[in-house]
Design a protein that fits this description.
The chain is about 55% helix and about 15% strand. The chain is α/β, with parallel strands linked by helices. The chain has one domain (about 5-200): Rossmann fold (3-Layer(aba) Sandwich), CATH 3.40.50.300. It has a 5-stranded parallel β-sheet with strand order 4-5-1-6-7, with helices on both faces. Strands 2-3 form a two-stranded antiparallel sheet. It is globular, with a radius of gyration of 16 Å. It starts with a strand and ends with a helix. Its main location: cytoplasm. GO terms for molecular function: AMP kinase activity; ATP binding; nucleoside diphosphate kinase activity. Keywords: ATP-binding, Cytoplasm, Kinase, Nucleotide-binding, Nucleus, Pyrimidine biosynthesis, Transferase.
Amino acid sequence: MKPVVVFVLGGPGAGKGTQCARIVEGRALRGALGKYGYTHLSAGDLLRDERKRPGSQYGELIENYIKEGEIVPVEITISLLKRAMDQTMAANSQKNKFLIDGFPRNEDNLQGWNKTMDGKADVSFVLFFDCDNEICIGRCLERGKSSGRSDDNRESLEKRIHTYLQSTKPIIDLYERMGKVRKVDASKSVDEVFEKVVQIFDKEG
């Protein structure tokens, strides 16, 4: 069975991780909601975990890219994503639906994905959390007080937002032209945003 993928994109602090966790749980305001059966894979978390893994061949390289707010080479990110999908499906062949959060982040990512995963995974749509940059920065600075993430500081965040606007937004625009983007106003409260997300997944299945 091939993986079915939803790319989850938006600026740093747009709420991608928070909303993905809710989609996986299938938690809605209006009571119990059937789980959609997705597994959440965060490209950033996979990279951060790999960076900390003792003996990782990529660790130091990943650390330098993340600190500079730059995008890690695509081969590394895709190999980590593919490994995570393979492990999930090996453990349970029914679990073939994935939310890939924070990827593809630039043209190079997208080309790398198309080259490596062509015919091996189906992208159903892009879930785009659209959020004002200052709101995003405020959320990340707040998160930085407890997250322990080295990139939750204003200097890194401004670099990350710049990278997002220069590199990721054109990818979202490209999928938009293909009719594959489902946009959510992510400046609202967590619950309000999730209400919209539920509508999208109820429709998409």
